[in-house]
Write a structure and sequence with these properties.
The chain is an alpha/beta fold and 354 residues long. It has eleven helices and twelve strands. It has two domains: 235 residues, Rossmann fold (3-Layer(aba) Sandwich), CATH 3.40.50; 93 residues.
Length: 354
């Protein structure tokens, strides 16, 4: 049975889709001009409103460039940050802004890649120009645009689009009725497609067949569970921290598809006794976290969240002080490329002339 809200929003989705296609056509016919950066640009984006695992891929790409001696810069919009305009998050030596000022995902990328320059700006072109001006004496070897598949004002040397294999994209609708930012056929604009979060083979096979018809290099990846990081607890040494299979937890997250986070914990052997989901990027409040902490205390549970959620709270010490009244952990997530890794690395090197 069709979703009534989706049905009511269908006219708006049709209008949005038409607007997107007209805009793309203006770029294709060069009526809207693209700006060419003197520093190579690699764009990583997607077709949907979040949930593809794009941020871990940006992290993977940045670390790969560092491993081959190419100093990267990251340019992001800084979604839901409190600051405005172009802001320097990290100068490649130290992180300068809190997660409130830079956005949770951007803060996470900056802290996990201390050697990378990180800049946020609503207009990516202005952010790139900021880097060119303020780092003229030590220009980065490459600029990685985060979430920029639809941001076509900047020309790029490599355009990577990320697809969530666990999402039924073949039946997906345009915003606001669905989650598509533009039609699936527009994926042909990418130089390379990365199919991420492959777990349901049957669902993935349907999308793979569709993507292979498009004729772009296809990379296959899945989410890899990283370390479970202890934030707080009465542990005298790292050896005293309980192993995952000895943890009883209340899990909470404010991300797209939070169910996958709980699945990751269960796969690690963590006993998830309760969970609470917030909306993606939803701001946390003391009241909400106090309620979670009380619930965890009543059931004698530890708290566990995602790395992104941890960084969202990190800019507000009062929130961290609430969740750390209980033993508290966050789970690191990484991208594991299991097919097409060499091709991806080759195209990343070609993009910077190596």
């Amino acid at each position: 049975m069709p979703d009534p809200l989706s049905f009511l929003l269908r006219p708006l989705s049709m209008l949005f889709g038409s607007t997107v296609q007209v805009r793309n056509s203006l770029f294709e016919h060069r009526i809207f001009k693209k700006w060419k950066s003197p520093v190579p640009v690699v764009s990583i984006g997607n077709l949907t409103a979040g949930g593809t695992g794009k941020t871990p891929l940006v992290d993977w790409v940045v670390k790969y460039y560092l491993s081959i001696g190419c100093k990267p810069a990251i340019v992001s919009r800084g979604y839901r940050r409190e600051s405005k305009g172009v802001q320097l998050v990290s100068d490649g030596n130290r992180v300068l802004l809190s997660s409130r000022e830079s956005g949770d995902e951007t803060a996470m990328l900056a802290w996990n890649n201390p050697d990378a320059i990180v800049v946020v700006g609503e207009k990516r072109k202005d952010a790139v120009r900021y880097i060119l001006k303020h780092f003229a004496r030590r220009l980065p070897a490459v600029i990685v645009l985060d979430d920029a598949f639809q941001h076509r004002q900047i020309d790029r040397n490599l355009d990577i689009a990320v697809i969530n294999a666990s999402e039924p994209l073949l039946k997906a609708k345009m915003l606001p009725a669905g989650r598509l930012r533009e039609p699936l056929k527009n994926i042909a604009r990418a130089d390379m497609i990365l199919l991420n979060k492959i777990s349901d083979t049957q669902q993935a096979d349907l999308i793979i067949k569709k993507l292979e018809d498009i004729g772009r290099p296809l990379v296959k990846a899945r989410i890899k569970i990283g370390d479970l990081i202890c934030i707080s607890g009465n542990f005298r040494s790292p050896e005293d921290v309980p192993a995952p299979h000895n943890l009883r937890v209340l899990a909470f997250a404010g991300i797209a598809f939070p169910e996958s986070f709980v699945e990751c914990l269960i796969k690690e052997g963590v006993h998830v006794e309760a969970y609470h989901f917030f909306h993606d990027h939803e701001p946390y409040s003391a009241k909400k976290l106090q309620a979670l902490s009380r619930k965890a205390e009543q059931k004698d549970l530890s708290l566990v969240t995602t790395e992104k959620d941890y960084f969202r709270m990190l800019g507000q010490p009062e929130l961290i002080s609430i969740i750390t009244t209980r033993p508290c952990f966050y789970l690191k997530i990484e991208t594991e490329i299991f097919e097409g890794r060499e091709k991806l690395q080759e195209m990343l090197r070609i993009a910077v002339g190596k």
